[in-house]
Amino acid sequence: MKLALIGVGQAGGKVVDKFIEYDKKHGAEIVRGAVAVNTAKADLRGLTHIPEDRRILVGQAEVKGHGVGADNELGAEVIERDLGEIQGALDMVPSHEVDAFLVVAGLGGGTGSGGAPVIAKYLKRIYTEPVYGLGILPGSDEGGIYTLNAARSLQTFVREVDNLLVFDNDAWRQTSESVTEGFDAINEQIVQQFGLLFSAGEIQAGNDVAESVVDSSEIINTLSGGGISTLGYAESAVDEPKRKGLFSRLSGGGNDADAFDSTDTTNRITSLVRKATLGRLTLPCEVEGTERALLVVAGAGPLLNRKGIERSRKWLEEQTGSMEVRGGDYPRNGSGVVATVVLLAGVTNVPRVKELQQVAIEAQQNRDEIEGESDDKRRNLLGEDNDLESLF
């Protein structure tokens, strides 16, 4: 799937930078263009793979390149005012080669949580290609203002995109890691998992041809209908088959799949799909009630057992209750693993989202109470009954 990536804010820019690195490392060729947008000059300088002319500093008149200080309302305002500059960078992206736009942002800060929905809305108005969001939820230990920003942004972001893919830091950060180590590891996980999903169907030199191709249209159809989506991933290290030459096969040497027991390859795939679905999803949720799903199994061609993929697809239908479950294989030689990606689209029973919604309700109630108390205190301080001269 060919993507145009727009990273908004610090987290969004770093993830897009990692996507480009992943693309170069694996030869996936999924990134057709990338832009980073930020209100903080230092964050843009920290990027290494996004070209400098695609790093857009916005809001200079308001915040002088120092960021918006977790104020997502200000973040939205400055992005809105500087959409022309962002469009100038997007004009360099070959949109005729793009299957979809992906707007990436951390939803806890100010620039990403406020600006990502604004950019997504603008893209949907200008382009005919689907516009997806990849939103990263802050950990619950990162502070109340970040949780509140995420609660507000999530509601707006999901409304402005064709589908919102979500990654929850709470489900992935290890307590033993430092903040920097934790975020670096999380970014690696995001790119590894979503990179494999979007790479599926792209033909690469030296790889076999898929028996059941998962191309961009399969991904687009799975994400159609909007809502929130989550991704499951699991892999298993394997000894890949040595590729036999044509002469060896013609002289009775057999084919690459002969060295592998069909039962073993089938069981490996079904086990990995269960682990991906019921293990750590990017956004933990109840699988039952999922509207649509997509299964991708990647690895060396002889290890991609068709029976295992079909059984796994039927198992997903039973678990989700959905009749819209697509699946296929993605031959990828030289990786040393068999990997499965399970995309669950249109999930509805998500405890973390319900928690964020409750936070937003309570925060609004607290804000109203605090504002009311502040008004009373100001009236008491400056009211007619007060003798201000006695204060001096």
Automatic annotation (TrEMBL):
It holds the Pfam family Tubulin. The keyword Cell inner membrane does not apply. This is Tubulin-like protein CetZ. Residues 365-392 are annotated as: Disordered. The lineage of its organism: Archaea, Methanobacteriati, Methanobacteriota, Stenosarchaea group, Halobacteria. CDD domains: CetZ_tubulin-like. Residues 365-382 have a biased composition (Basic and acidic residues). SMART domains: Tubulin. GO terms for biological process: cell division; microtubule-based process; regulation of cell shape. It comes from the Archaea. Involved in cell shape control. InterPro entries: CetZ, CetZ_C, FtsZ/CetZ, Tubulin/FtsZ-like_C, Tubulin/FtsZ_GTPase_sf, Tubulin_CS, Tubulin_FtsZ_GTPase. GO terms for cellular component: cell division site; cytoplasm; microtubule. Belongs to the CetZ family. Keywords: Cell cycle, Cell division, Cell shape, Cytoplasm, GTP-binding, Nucleotide-binding. It is found in: Cytoplasm. Residues 2-205 form the Tubulin/FtsZ GTPase domain. GTP binds at Q10, A11, G12, G13, K14, G110, T111, G112, E142, N169, N187. Its main location: cytoplasm. GO terms for molecular function: GTP binding; GTPase activity.
